[in-house]
Amino acid sequence: MDDRMDEFEERLRSLRPVGPTPDLECRVSAGLDGEPAAAKPRIGIWVVAAGLMAATLVLCVALARLAGPAAAPRPPQPAKMLALIPRRDFTADDPPTRAVYSAALMRSPETLDALLDKHARSLMPPERYPSPWRNADLQ
């Protein structure tokens, strides 16, 4: 370190705290000689807090009774389905499309089943696919 820092540190070491004044010593001793002040009971704050909590409880109960019983939630309504109206009357010879199947379902579920069976038979000839009821195909 340089000389300036050494001089500064020397001055800092020479500093000492100032002692208490005689007046301060008298006031502190007078305060210690007297009887300690009793802690004031804070009952008033607790009474006010308890009263506010009771009033809040009474208000909540009164509002709940005025509102009446809670209404049961209504069950959800089923979504309304729009009927698919075919643009023309489809025949059984039409290719398998969604419109053909929708038209068949609008007539009846049995009509749709018959159309699905017809299309399945036309797409899967029996000679190419084994039947689950014939054991001869499995040999």
| Alpha-beta classification | mainly alpha
Over all CA atoms, what is the radius of gyration?
Answer: 50 Å
Number of strands: 0
Question: What share of the residues lie within helices?
Answer: 40-55%
**Based on CA inertia axes, which overall geometry fits?**
elongated
**Largest sheet descriptor:** none
Describe this structure in words.
- 53% of the residues lie in helices and 0% in strands.
- The protein is mostly helical.
- It has a domain at 85-134.
- The longest helix is centred in the middle third of the chain and has 25 residues, at 43-67.
- The chain starts with a helix and ends in a 16-residue tail after the last helix.
- The model has no long low-confidence stretch (mean pLDDT 77).
How would you summarize this macromolecular structure in one to three sentences?
The protein is mainly alpha-helical and 139 residues long. The chain is built from five helices and no strands. It has a domain at 85-134.
Tags for this model:
single chain, 139 residues, mainly alpha, 5 helices, 0% strand, elongated
Topology of helices and strands:
Layout: H1 3-14, H2 22-33, H3 43-67, H4 98-107, H5 109-123
